[in-house]
Every structure is written in structure tokens, then in C-alpha cells.
Amino acid sequence: MPRNNTNWRWAERVLHTQAFRITLIFVFFYAVSATALIGFTYWNAQRAVDAQTDETIDAEVGGLREQYQRTGVIGLSDVINARVAQHNSGLYYLQSPTGGVLAGNLLGLPDSAKLSGRYVEFEYQVSQQGATVNRTARGQAFFLPGGFLLLVARDISDQKLTRKFFSTTIPWSAGLMLLFGVGGGLLMSRNFLRRLDAITRTSSEIVAGDFSRRVPVTGSHDEMDSLAENLNIMLERTERLMKGMREVVDSVAHDLRTPLNRLRNRLEEMQRRMASDDPHQDDIEATIAETDRLIATFNALLLIAEADSGMTRGSMAPLDLSAIVADVADLYAPLAEEKEITLEVAPSGVLTVEGNRSLVSQALANLIDNAIKYSQAGGHITVSATETPLSINLTVADTGPGIPVAERARVLERFVRLEKSRNSPGTGLGLSLVAAVARMHDAKLILGDNNPGLKATVSFPRALGRKQIQLAPAKELLLPSP
Amino acid sequence: MRILVVEDDLEAQRYLVNGLKEAGHVVDEAADGDTGLTLALSRPYDCAIIDRMLPKMDGLQVVAEMREHGNLMPVLFLSALSEVDDRVKGLKAGGDDYLTKPYAFVELIARIDALMRRRAPASVKTKLSVGELELDLLTRAATRSAQDIDLQPREFRLLEYLMRHAGQVVTRTMLLESVWEYHFDPQTNVIDVHISRLRAKIDKGFEAPLLHTIRGAGYMIRAAK
Description:
A: five-stranded antiparallel beta sheet; 12 strands; rod-shaped; B: alpha/beta; Rossmann fold
């Protein structure tokens, strides 16, 4: 089910975006604070309403107490009965010390109201159009001098209804808020991801060597657009620099090769015109050889510059490293045999990396050449292509003197090596070129110990790593099927 | 042989023309792309040596136009540009070989000899022979005076290349390029070792050697006179 799979991947990616997380956190805090605010307002309003009710009752109680003092229990009963008759929301209950009902519109005294002196809420029944309805009241019960118990209360059912309405609304609205928040977050993240993917795709194409690519600008003038614009300005500059670099390398090559060519031509011409027994023949031959060494060093430097400038990126193609190992080892096998050195190729399956065949072959040739140069008769050289979960490695291990740990970093530096190798054969740029070829392929040249000897490894990142950058086509990401 | 030289560096041009004339060729020269193309299209040549960077018309374009006009003469590019991609561009434009400046004159001569030889209609041969040495391209068997010679695959290819160019100088670079397909300089002279192994197989025990070292140039396989 590739489609489902794609949806899953998409969902997973959206959930992991910064935009989604930020939205989620924001929505969470917003919901919490909004709920708290509504809750507080509700609580405060409720308190004010309760206080008002209590105040009304207090005033009424005060009036009734006065009535009782002035006119006794009969007068009080009359007043209560009169108020009941008015049909307002007042509730009354007057009980004699013996427990008889003297006045009021309540049938009995609720249990919770028996404690005098405090406001309590209690339920009572009212018959309304033939049905008994439960209602809520709030009031105070207290004893009058002489043992009479008076309850004064107000119906607060309407308030209670409002309260209930509030307490059910708050969780719902909080839930809705979260839902909208998550939805908004997904939408924002999707938009964010889409634009980020465009940038990632562009940059991976540029890494692959297409310097003409630019990040798309949507024209919405937002921060993503300004990021894209800035990236494009940067890319423009990089492209110009690369072009400039190429021109410099080309013109340096041209301007130095032309006189070197004339120099060599003249020497050869002189040699041709000289009698073959002329005593200067040897001098000229030595001069030509010296010129050739100069040319070889120049070519090696130029190649390093080319590899480092990324000029050769365009010529990359899939290569089988094990085939390259077999071919280069085949070239050097007779030379090793002649020096009585065993050159062994560790067998391996097809190991493909993206690279320039000529340069990778040359790098390996340089490593093998060095290994043979520094090995004694009876030595052993192993050339192998191996894979690890993260890399594909090209390794040349010899049993020669190796390179001391402290020197390993230094031998890769171009000019240090150049200085050092003045008296040794070769251009002395062999390892520097290997390092440059490695850099060009995003690979690493690692000089390690073979105990004894040198173990040089060019470690290519696995093609997998690169594939991760190469995202699925935009359509697949942007249109998750419902 | 008639050779066209298109080179804008007059000093290098003079040297090239002199060298080729000394080697017995008839040479015409041009110093820019336009003149070069006109000459190439108006006169019959056996081979052209064209510089990559030329005034008026780039070397690549000259060859591309020649090919467009149906002119198939072998072309060797000379280039002072940096290497890696340039060779590919030259060959794509229709060049037959590519040599980076500075070059050794013997290398140039060996290459144009090989180019002009290639031009001769190559009959589909299944057997190559030099003297009493025979190479069967179908059975991949080598014999000398009816004696079997056991060759490794790479040795076979090396011998095949040498025998296809029998009587011609073949340089180390040419061998490296055509037998191993490498276009770089393997600091140590690995080719010499391969040649001496091959020599041990085909010449050892025989009176007249077939595989000769040409000092300062390369190798040549030829029948003993």
C-alpha cells in the first residue's frame, strides 16, 4: 500500500515540524488561560450574585426580626403569609418550638437548613402545572427568641441553570479551541513543510552539481520569501564564484602551459638537431626530464584545484568501487610482484558510489603507488572496498613504515608536503590529491594504523544518506489523500 | 601524408610544422579557427591537429562544423586547458584524440600515426599476426611458431593493441589510455613492468625479439627482418 505509506510518512513529518509543535504549545497555553479566565469570571460573577441574594435575605431577616419583636409571632406569621401571597421568589418557613408549622410556603424544613446562622443551599419541590419540579433555594435558618425557628430563603434555580450552562460550556469550548488549534497547526505545518521542502530540494540539486538552481519565491513577501530571496542571492554569488574559479583555473592552466609547452618544444628541437654523440645530449635530456617533473607537479596542483573547486562535479556518475579496486590493482600487480610485495585484493560485491571514475581511480592508484613505494620486499598490501551501514570504504593497507600519528594531518597539507618531498621521487602531491578527490566526493581520507604500516581509507558516505535529501516528488507530499 | 595544423601560438605552430615536415609530412598551417575551417573543407588532408582555444572560432566549433559538412578526417585536439572535463568535451565535439600541452613530440607523432592508420578501412580481422606471432581474436589464443602462449586477459588486450599498431611506435600513455582506459599519469612507470612481463611470454626462448623498446618514446612490435 504505497499510498498509505506515503500518508504515514507525510503525517509523521508534519507532526515533527517546528511549526506544528509551536502551534500545539501555543494552543495548549491559550486553551488553559482562556479556560482559567472564563472560570474566574464565572466564579466572580457567581459570588456577586450569591452576595446579592444573601444581602436581600439579610435585609428581609432584619425586617422580620423587627416585626417579631414588635408584634410577636402572630404579627410575624401575618407578614410572612402576606409575602407568600405576593408570589415573589421568597421562601419562608416558621416553626413553633413544638415543631408545628405556623406560616410559610415550604412544606418542611430541609435537613441541611437545620443548622442555624449560615447560608445554605437546598433542594425543594414545587408543583407546577400538576408536576412536581425540583428547585434550588438559598437561605438561612435561625431561632427567634422564644424558641421559634424561622427559615428565609430565595429561589436560585435560574442562577443554578446559568451555572450549569457555564460549567458544561467551558470544557466544550476548551476542546473546540484545541481542535481548531491542532487543525490550524497541521495546516500551517503543511504550508511550512511544502516551502521548506522546496528549499531542501533545491539545495540538494545544487549539492549534486547544478548551480543554476534557485529557491522558488512565492511572492507573498513573508519571512519564508525573504529567506528564499536571501538564499538565492547567496546562490547567485556562489555560482559566480564557481564560474570565476573555473575561469581562474583555466587561465592559469592556459597561461602556464603555453610557455611550458614552448620550453619543452625548444628543448626537443635542440635535441633533434644535435648530433647523437654531442656531449650536451645528456644535459638536454636531464633538462627535459626536469621540465617533465615541473609539468607533472603543475598538473597535480591544477587537478587538486579543480577537484576542490567543484568544477568536476558535473562529471559524476554511479561507479562500482569493487570494479575500480580490481582494475587499479591489476595495473599495479606486476610492479608489486617485481618488488616481491604481495598485492592482495579483498573480494567484495558491487558497491556503488556517485563519483568521477578517472579521479577515484587516480586517487586509488596514488594510494597503491605510495604503498608499493614505501614497502620492503616481502611486504603485504591489501586493497579492499567494504561497506558499513553509514559508508562505503576504499582501503589500502600496507606493512611499510606507516606515518607517525603526529604527522598524519600534516602530510595532507599541500605545501607542507611539497616542501618535505623535495628530495623524494614523485610530485609529493599524491596524498593531497587523494584528499582533494575525497573532499570532492563528500568522502573522507582517513590515515590510520595497520600495526605495522599505513592504512589509508577513503570513506564515501552511503548513497542512502544522499537519497534522504532527495525528497519524494512534491505532489506526493502536498496532496495527502483523505 | 598531408596534415593541417591549426594553432594560434605562432612559436608552437612553427615548431609543430617543422617537426612534422622533418618527419616527412606535408603541412598546411592556420592561426585561427576561420582559416582552419576553410582549409579543412577545401583541401584533402589525412589528419588535422587543432588547438582547443583559437581566435575567431573555437577549436571545438571548427571540428563540429567540419563534421556537419561530412568531413571525417581524423582530428587530434591540443589543449592547454585544465583537464578533467575538457577531454570529454573534445571527444564529444568530434575529435578523435586529445593531447594536453605540454606534450612530447614523439607522443604527438605516435598518436597521429595511429589516427591516420585507423582511417584506413579496417577489415574485420579475426586474426592478427606479426612474424610468427599469431593472435586469434575469436578464441583469444596466442601462438608463436605454433607454441601456445598463456596470456592473462589484460596481457591479451595489451598485445592486441600493440599488434593492431604493428610497426608503429606506441607510447606508454597510449597504452594506459586504450588498454586500461586511464587518463592520468601513474607516477611510477607501471606500463614498463607490464611490457616486460609480456615480453617474457612472447620473446623468451626465441632468437629474434618482436617487442622493441623505442628509447624516449615507447614500444613497437614488428616482425624481425
